[in-house]
Amino acid sequence: MPAEPAPASLPVAAARRRRLRVDQARQLADLLRHQILAGGFPGGVLPLEHAIAADYRVSRNTVRQALEMLRDEQLVERHPGVGTVVVCEKKYPHGLDRLQGLAETLHEHGRVTNEVRTVGPVRAPSPVAHRLGLPERSDVLCVERLRRLNGLPLSLDLSYLPLDVGGELLGCDLENTDVFRLLESLTGGPLGHAEVCIEAVNADAHSAAVLQVPRGAAVLMLERMTHLPDGRPVDLEFIRFRGDRISMSGVLHRSL
Question: What is the pTM of this model?
Fold first, then answer.
């Protein structure tokens, strides 16, 4: 006698259980990733699977899936007889609470140096002229710098500045000084405010070669427009950060 077909609800329930386990693994991977990048595992070795399972109240299978996700991200490696070890480089924190240059932001983590790749007047592209409040076909100062922290490539910065202000930067030490500090020295006072937009983009051939990452790798693009205290736009920047070496954070206050 042929067996009766299983109720349709059983495959659905099984699929729901599998999906739930994958969700739990992803959620666990997110928590472990934060600890890894924050240096939360002494000696760079994660606890054993059963210890992680007990700490987070999940199954050993869920732990294995989470660790495989982190391995695929090249954050950890799994070695028989040793366990799961951290292999990624430390990420440096970049705060978004204050308007600061890179050397000011990361001064506790080492020395920022700059390789000036391009500096000089150029005809402003129309969108740049518009955003800087300049007439069409105006000249602006264009500065491109590769920025390193402790000798390692960290970001590729492209800046456009009105020539009446930026032109004075041509005689300044752009290799060892943040543009913000130079601008404040030249204008005789502090900068005002900035609008910031952050998104992930794929590294083009040029930026990939300069930052020493694979072409098409995800990098963090920070677009920042800085203003003088009177509101005049003075510095339009497009900054490509190596996402494996920096993390962005800030404190947000709710207001209604």
Answer: 0.79
